[in-house]
Write a structure and sequence with these properties.
This protein has 409 residues and is mostly beta strands. Among the domains are: 102 residues, Ribonuclease Inhibitor (Leucine-rich repeat, LRR (right-handed beta-alpha superhelix), Alpha-Beta Horseshoe), CATH 3.80.10; 178 residues, Leucine-rich repeat, LRR (right-handed beta-alpha superhelix) (Alpha-Beta Horseshoe). The chain has a 16-stranded parallel β-sheet. Helix 4 links the parallel strand 13 and strand 14. It is elongated and about 80 Å long. It starts with 6 loop residues before the first helix and ends in a 5-residue tail after the last strand. This is Disease resistance R13L4/SHOC-2-like LRR domain-containing protein.
């Protein structure tokens, strides 16, 4: 019955195969097939869906391509290192799951699978994708996360129907210049790579709604980034962008924006914390209260984000917040400013009409605006690990449901 396949697994496979004539579907999971004897394939040519998952398969028969009627195939959780050359003959295949194997590469003829719409090859050992990868013209969903890809083939932007893409947890240093040609892309995860910058025309991704660029090495965004008008969810956490990108202000559809664990310290390029005509002769920076009073920050670059509901600026090196413009953030529910160097919270923050949660722990705050304690929507306020000298005596009588004052003497 084929060397390598256990007797129990062989019987399991036979029994399962016997009942598939009517359904065209075979599911075998959590056994020790190890290998598929060719004679089994001859009895399975009628299948439209085949799932051989966590079966400890180490290889597929050379004749695997004889399953010409297959539309859905899952080989997830096996020990495959390569695919047979005949694999490209599965011309009706629409969904393919090769996740959690040991694949190091895919043959070029793999890209002849013209009907393929959904491809899952995450958690393998892929170092590269075939040069012809862009020939998968029907592909709509691609998950390649947790491999060791260092670059993408130049043909990659030819995937004109791609709507969902996960390239997270690879070793990508750059993207193809024409990446913006993926005009149908709606959800894109590029987190935990080694990207230092994005292609110049990245903003051509006009359909993009969700984008994660977290934990890369980005130090700037391209000018075209401002053209991502459909973007509702953006993560820039864990990069190296020191100055708030002016492009972000143009993203008026943003609902969720995480910009934590960067080196954010400036709200405008070349910003100084004093008026030029009043600059100290010894280059010393004025204290934070003076900064706010002079309002040298000008307009608030966040004020145009009128749809924003969740904003995370924690774990940066911010010393000041813009003093004006907070009244435009009428939809904001949760604001995180934890672990910065803030000494003052503008009163406008306390007046945010829908604010439910404010995290301002681990800063250098000495006082809090009274507006925080009269905000009827605010349910949680975390101010622990600050330098608070006073708060209103009757703070507990106001509308804040949960007040964390740890380390307040």
């Amino acid at each position: 019955m084929g060397a390598g396949a256990s007797t129990k697994a062989s019987k399991e496979f036979d029994d399962a195969l016997n009942g598939t004539e009517a359904t065209g579907k075979l599911v075998v999971r959590n056994c020790e097939l190890l290998a598929l004897p060719p004679e089994w394939l001859q009895r399975a040519v009628h299948l439209k869906e085949l799932r051989l998952e966590h079966a400890k398969l180490k290889q597929l028969p050379a004749s695997f391509g004889c399953l010409l009627l297959l539309e859905r195939l899952s080989l997830s959780g096996n020990q495959l290192e390569t695919l047979p050359l005949s694999f490209h003959e599965l011309q009706r295949l629409e969904e393919l799951d090769l996740s959690c194997n040991a694949l190091r590469s895919l043959f070029g003829n793999f890209c002849n699978l013209g009907a393929l719409r959904r491809l899952f090859v995450h958690e393998n050992a892929l170092k590269k994708l075939p040069t012809e990868f862009g020939a998968l013209s029907s592909l709509q969903m691609l998950d390649v996360h947790n491999n060791v890809l260092k670059k993408l083939p130049k043909s990659f932007p030819c995937l004109a129907q791609l709507t969902r893409l996960d390239l997270s947890r690879n070793k990508l240093r750059k993207l193809p210049e024409a990446f913006g040609n993926l005009s149908a892309l709606r959800i894109c995860n590029l987190s935990r790579n080694m990207l230092r910058e994005l292609p110049e025309f990245f903003g051509m991704l006009g359909a993009l709604e969700v984008l994660s660029l977290s934990y890369n090495a980005l130090y700037k965004l391209p000018v075209s980034f401002a053209e991502l008008a459909s973007l509702t969810n953006l993560s820039l956490t864990g990069n190296r962008i020191e100055c708030f990108p002016v492009q972000i202000s143009a993203l008026k559809a943003l609902v969720t924006f995480t910009y934590a664990e960067n080196r954010l310290r400036l709200w405008k390029p070349g910003e100084k914390y004093f008026l030029e005509e009043e600059a100290p002769e010894n280059d010393q920076v004025l204290d934070t209260e003076a900064i706010v009073e002079m309002d040298t920050l000008g307009s608030n670059p966040l004020a145009t984000l009128v749809a924003i509901q969740y904003l995370d600026l924690s774990d940066n090196v911010l010393e000041v917040l813009p003093s004006r413009g907070w009244e435009h953030l009428e939809m904001l529910l949760h604001l995180k400013l934890t672990r910065n160097r803030l000494q003052i919270i503008p009163s406008g923050v306390g007046n945010l009409p829908k604010l439910q949660r404010l995290d301002i722990a681990a800063n250098k705050l000495k006082t809090l605006p009274n507006s925080l304690f009269s905000n009827k929507s605010l349910a949680y306020l975390d101010v622990q690990h600050n330098n608070l000298q006073e708060i209103p005596e009757n703070a507990g009588e106001f509308f804040v449901a949960s007040l964390n004052l740890k380390n307040y003497a």
